[in-house]
């Protein structure tokens, strides 16, 4: 490096020899080993009865760093051409980790002092700690089931948090499914990927989204709803910006696209945390409507991504982010498109949503629980029963949305499915709040039961409109039956989620022997709400796999028999099993938990 001074140039050469570099690498390795040991040692203090599951979870997350960081290093080197950029990135990661650790320890200390007000007062009087003023955006007194409190204070605060949560979730869903649009364009702009590789790029967000949902199911009681909404929404900038950069470089490797597709699963994960957060704000009688609105507006992101992303791609360069156009080659026709817009178009809205959540949302102080407390949900029978039902509703919605265009184009080659592919997801999203509203008034179980009956019949009816050896099929009838499926799945989404909080609250209240003990009942309701939040997140995680398995079932059936008939028969049997589960445990007279 040369520095120009008044007295002439001064050359500086900063570097390390092989021996010094090797010694430093060993020092870093030793520090990493000690750090890893200290992390696992702390797990024994915090999760003495869950070391296996928590330790495995920590190991999985740590292993993801070993997968993603080398890719990030390579991208940084390609982008700026500086080999030491890897160390610059590590400095940022270490600084963020140190800040996270400090904030976590501070939060834990505050939580302990909050539970022991006398000890806090003594420490403040002895000037060992400073007096802490009540923090903004932190609700210490929160009683949504108290009618007077709800009408005077609670409704306004809850509605504000809901209205800020909905656009954040919509953007998360849009980022989650945007690859279903991008993969269609990649072969036309010079990326020599095989159809199988493109299919995996479209499917990977579904897989990672399901895993992220499982992790995000437990974060709200640990980090706080406002904190996590801001963080998780801002995190969507990583895949969206990376998409915009990667597609502009025709030399981008397939592994980079795989990493970006996996990161888009963050959008799917946000659903679990968002729904868990909103469930704490509303009284039981209004949770169906509130959760239905939150999820319904969020689900709109699926249809909007399939509607807006193509318009953005063909609409020209964006004002700020811009970028060069790519030549879209389709046979002899050539057009100028901007595939990077499929990622860039969401960036300003993500920034605005994160800022709005930061200034407008709240944390509920009473919603505090560690992973071990929530992990008990894995041993709960009703957790797995409701997961099965939610696979039938939300899993069908996301799987049908992912596979419908490809299915129609395969069995009806002369039809352009992209002209109407977004209609079904949009309808399902719009009617999801209706499902929650109906569940609040008629009961979640009866609505869920009816929707599964309709879905089973509509699936069987769709088989009748398939092409055969002697018949070209009826595309209008086939599409109509799928629209019925979308509508029933959307309503079922709302009613199924309405059932979960009631089930876990009811079971907890049954454990209170003295019904006149208001303190015990309040504690049972609080524990039931915490369990329900984790249950909703885990159910959503299980259901997200539908986005992968439904298209896979279509493909397997067509490959083996030449028709999706086998997959549709299988889906119909699955819906019938959901009918039986709903009737046996929740909707019949004398059911274990009538809801």
Count of distinct structural domains: 5
* Number of strand segments: 6
Helix content: over 70%
Mean pLDDT: 80
Give the full name of the CATH homologous superfamily of the largest domain: MFS general substrate transporter like domains
CATH structural fold name of the largest domain: Growth Hormone, Chain: A
Radius of gyration, whole Å: 26 Å
- The structure class reads mainly alpha
CATH architecture of the largest domain: Up-down Bundle
- Strand arrangement, major sheet: 1-2
- Name of the CATH first level of the largest domain: Mainly Alpha
- Helices and strands, in order, run as EEHHHHEHHHHHHHHEEHHEHHHHHHHH
Considering the chains and any ligands shown, give keywords for the structure.
595 residues, mainly alpha, two-stranded antiparallel sheet, two-stranded parallel sheet, 22 helices, globular
Can I get a quick summary?
The protein is built from 22 helices and six strands. With 595 residues, it is mostly helical. Helix 5 (147-177) packs parallel to helix 12 (287-314), helix 17 runs antiparallel to helix 18 and helix 17 (423-442) packs parallel to helix 19 (475-510).
Give an account of the 3D structure.
By secondary structure, the chain is mainly alpha-helical. It folds into five domains: 1-46, no CATH class; 49-83; 84-133; 150-365, Growth Hormone, Chain: A (Up-down Bundle), CATH 1.20.1250.20; 369-595, Up-down Bundle (Growth Hormone, Chain: A). 73% of the residues lie in helices and 4% in strands. It contains 22 helices and six strands. The protein has a two-stranded antiparallel sheet with strand order 1-2. Strands 3-6 form a two-stranded parallel sheet. A two-stranded antiparallel sheet has the order 4-5. Helix 11 runs antiparallel to helix 12 (287-314) and helix 18 (444-464) packs antiparallel against helix 22. The chain is globular, with a radius of gyration of 26 Å. The termini are far apart. The model has no long low-confidence stretch (mean pLDDT 80).
